[in-house]
Amino acid sequence: MANPFETTDTEETVTCLCITVYHPEQEQKQVFRALKFCQHQQLRADELVKFGRDTNFCLFNFVDGRVSRIQFALHFFKHFNNTEFGFEIKNLSKKVKLIVDNVELAYLNKVDLPEICLVRFGDYEMLMQKQGGQSENYFEIRFELAKTPLWQDQREPLQQPIPESGIFYSDSPLEVDEDE
């Protein structure tokens, strides 16, 4: 007699794109009020997922007149000669550039999303993290809300390398303890 555990189908895991969103005026303007937070939203694998302010064309909406009607789209795909799934992001705004990590996308430009990346446009910041799965039929998107900015300006001054001698020369005076 077969064990029921052995004969049950193995449940496929579903690829999930976790998107943490931030806007500096989210508390006052409620720009993310149309998004469902902390819920896995299952979508068909062949669906082109659009983000923007137009509720007639976009599945995920930002309630902000400064966002394009259709800002960008995500497309789920399977890598050629590979079992791994991924996402590509395409800028659909003629007015606003989309920045994926440090790559600037103009209108109709697209790029594959890395496993973890920061997507920015205008004052919007979105940390996108892919969690792998095997399902060819569906994927999921889950939104989280960040209370603090996700991106910090990287224009901090570079630190001077310390020479092999271990002595660091500087133009500014250094305070030295008399006992040294």
UniProtKB/TrEMBL annotation:
Subcellular location: Cytoplasm
Name of protein: TRAF-interacting protein with FHA domain-containing protein A
InterPro entries for the chain: TIFA (IPR033621)
Region forming the signal peptide: none
Organism listed in the record: Pogona vitticeps
Domain of life per record: Eukaryota
GO process annotations (BP): positive regulation of canonical NF-kappaB signal transduction
Segments of this protein annotated with the region Disordered: 161-180
Keywords, alphabetical: Cytoplasm
Main localization, broad class: cytoplasm
Cellular component annotations (GO), alphabetically ordered: cytoplasm
Keyword DNA damage: no
